[in-house]
Design goal:
Blueprint (H helix, E strand, L loop, with lengths): L14 H9 L4 H20 L4 H10 L8 H10 L11 H7 L1 H8 L5 H8 L10 H12 L8 H10 L1 H18 L6 H11 L6
Helix pairs in contact: 2-3, 2-8, 3-7, 3-8, 6-7, 7-8, 8-10, 9-10, 10-11
The structure holds guanosine-5'-diphosphate (GDP) and fe (iii) ion (2 copies).
């Protein structure tokens, strides 16, 4: 799969160039995770008949901003005139929700379907495209992940993307509640739609 050649001109880079850019941006451990997410995303895209090239790019870029200092995110919130409430959150939320603006500019990525998947890859959303679900789930089940429940998540992902989103969201929420961590509103929206089956407002 590592010889996937990009053909859609979604970026001004070959896959090999993109891999190198990502490699220079993160630690070795995170780089391995990112390659794992790319592979998982490509596999899910093949399985569910979605675009493997978009899955690859989304996987490679989803944590591109994960190791930036907090001050870069605060500066980006100002620069791109984003909702000031974002400043009250932290890296866990910023690397996707704010990172996507940095990625759009730095890497000249214009494909909105990929950008949206990256934006919400941590939280999910009430309305998720197939690519959104693929990235959200791939991030959770990539082969380097090792936590109680990951094997169940992998099995569920083979049968239904929506069920995999629900499984992951319920587990993440339980964890956040146990740890008394703040829950981002989009995470609750994902729970209401995919776990509780609530109709959209
Ligand atoms: P990673 O970037 O590959 O580590 O994975 P994610 O981007 O999916 O998640 C990053 C972190 O954000 C994880 O520790 C999640 O548990 C956490 N997280 C997910 N949703 C929320 C939320 O609503 N609030 C907070 N505070 N953290 C969250
Ligand atoms: Fe992430
Ligand atoms: Fe990740």
């Amino acid at each position: 799969m590592n010889n996937l050649e990009y053909q859609l001109n979604l970026l001004p880079y070959t896959r090999a160039e993109l891999v190198n850019l990502v490699k220079n941006q993160v630690s070795e451990k995170r780089f391995k995770h990112i390659l794992g997410v790319e592979q998982a995303a490509i596999m899910l895209a093949e399985q569910y008949g979605e675009c493997t090239e978009r899955a690859s790019i989304a996987g490679l870029l989803h944590d591109y901003c994960k190791e930036l200092p907090d001050s870069d995110f605060i500066a980006a919130i100002e620069k791109y005139h984003l909702d000031g409430n974002l400043k009250t959150w932290n890296n866990n939320i910023w690397h996707g929700m704010v990172g996507v603006y940095i990625i759009r500019e730095q890497l000249a990525l214009k494909d909105e379907t990929i950008l949206h998947a990256i934006e919400i890859h941590t939280t999910g959303a009430a309305q998720m495209s197939a690519l959104d679900k693929i990235l959200y789930v791939a991030d959770y089940i990539e082969l380097g992940r090792d936590f109680p429940g990951v094997q169940s998540a992998r099995e569920i992902a083979e049968k239904s993307l929506d069920d995999a989103v629900a499984f992951e969201t319920a587990h993440t929420l339980s964890y956040l509640i146990e740890q008394r961590l703040a829950i981002y509103p989009l995470t609750i929206a994902t729970y209401n739609r995919y776990c509780a089956g609530k109709k959209q407002e």
